[in-house]
Amino acid sequence: xxxxxxxxxxxxxxxxxxxxxxxxxxxxxxxxxxxxxxxxxxxxxxxxxxxxxxxxxxxxxxxxxxxxxxxxxxxxxxxxxxxxxxxxxxx
Length: 91
Hints:
This protein has 5 helices and no strands. By secondary structure, the chain is mainly α. It has one domain (3-87). α1 (3-34) crosses α2. The longest helix has 32 residues, at 3-34. The model has no long low-confidence stretch (mean pLDDT 92).
């Protein structure tokens, strides 16, 4: 791969990453409107807004994202994940 091809591929990957982050932030803002208490719980773990947005879009081993869990009326499952994260996985 030539240097120009590598640069082009890197630019495309960066553009895709920026779009992904932007979309995750959109999802985060929607979640904050739907369940402000859950959003506060997520931030209380120590995430900033960007990290929280990326976390809620990150699929688990089953392919479920926290945002999709909220959409499926499984907010309590997300709260349990947050509790495990805040208190260690042994909790």
